[in-house]
Amino acid sequence: MRGLALGLLALAALGGCVATTTSYPSPAITAPIASEPSGPNRYSAAARAALQSELFACSGYGSNIGQIGSRGEALAYSPYIYTPAGPLLRNPTETACLSSGFGWRGLADGGERQHNGLDLANPSGGYVYAAADGQVTFANRRGGYGISLEIDHGNGVRTFYAHLSDVDPNLSPGAFVSAGQPVARMGRTGNATGVHLHYEVSIDGLTVDPLHYGPPPEAAPIM
Ligand SMILES: [Zn+2]
C-alpha cells in the first residue's frame, strides 16, 4: 500500500503535476477492473457504463482538482454534464479517481499551462465509454495524446479521449456509438507517465470544464 502511494506520488511529479500536501482519506478506486479483453469483438461483449454517483480525488496526490470534501469527494458532482447535445457522462471510465482538473495548473519547473480536460486515473486501466450517443470523428494516434478517440455528439458538442491503450477495432471515423458503450481501454500512450484517461469536452470548438460545465445538479432536467 505504501509502495503504491509512493509510486503514485512519483508519477504525479514526473507528469509535471504538482503533488499537493493533502492526502485524501477515501479509497478512490474500489471496484475491480474487468480483465483485459481479447479477440476482434472483445468490446461488444463488455458491460456498458455504470453511472457513477461520486468522483473521488486520487488519494495522496492531485493537481488543480478544485473543491474536494472531507471524504475526498468532488463537491457538487453529478453523473451527467448537461449540454446542448443532451447529457454526457461526467466520468466515462470503468472506475477511476480524479488526478487533475481543468484549467491552469503548475508545472514542476514552476511554470503553468492550460489543461483542457480532466485526468481520470486508474493504474489498472479499465474501460472507457462513449459519453453519449454520437459519431466517431477520429480514432488514431495524435502526438502527445497517444492513441485517441473523438466523438461528435451533435449541436457543436464533442468529446475527446486520450492516452488510451487501444480503441475498439470496429470503430473508425463515421461509426456510430451509443451512450455508455465501451469504446476503448484506459492506457498511458503518448505523453503520459501513468495510466489515466485525459477527457475533454468541447462546445463549438472551445473546451469546457467537464467537472463544472452546465447547470448544477438541482437545476438539471430530469432525464
Ligand atoms: Zn490530461
Q: Please, how many domains?
A: 1
Question: How many beta-strand segments?
Answer: 14
Q: Specify the helix fraction band.
A: under 10%
CATH class: Mainly Beta
Shape: globular
* Ligand set: zinc ion
Helix tally? 1
User: What structural class should be given to the helix and strand makeup?
Assistant: mainly beta
Largest sheet: 10 strands, antiparallel
CATH superfamily label: Glucose Permease (Domain IIA)
Order of helices and strands: HEEEEEEEEEEEEEE
CATH third-tier fold name:
Glucose Permease (Domain IIA)
Strand proportion = 25-35%
- What is the mean pLDDT? 85
Radius of gyration: 16 Å
Which stretches are poorly predicted, pLDDT < 50 over at least 5 residues? Answer: 1-20
The separation of the N and C termini measures: 40 Å
CATH architectural grouping: Distorted Sandwich
Explained architecture:
This protein has 223 residues and is mainly beta. The protein has one domain (2-31, 45-219): Glucose Permease (Domain IIA) (Distorted Sandwich). The protein is 6% helix and 32% strand. It is built from one helix and 14 strands; from the N terminus they run H-E-E-E-E-E-E-E-E-E-E-E-E-E-E. It has one helix at 2-14, and strands at 80-83, 86-89, 97-100, 103-106, 112-115, 118-121, 127-129, 134-141, 147-154, 157-167, 176-177, 182-186, 196-203, 206-208. Strand 8 and strand 9 (147-154) form a beta hairpin. The longest helix has 13 residues, at 2-14. The chain starts with a helix and ends in a 15-residue tail after the last strand. Mean pLDDT is 85; it is low at 1-20. Zinc ion binds at residues 100, 115, 117, 119, 198.
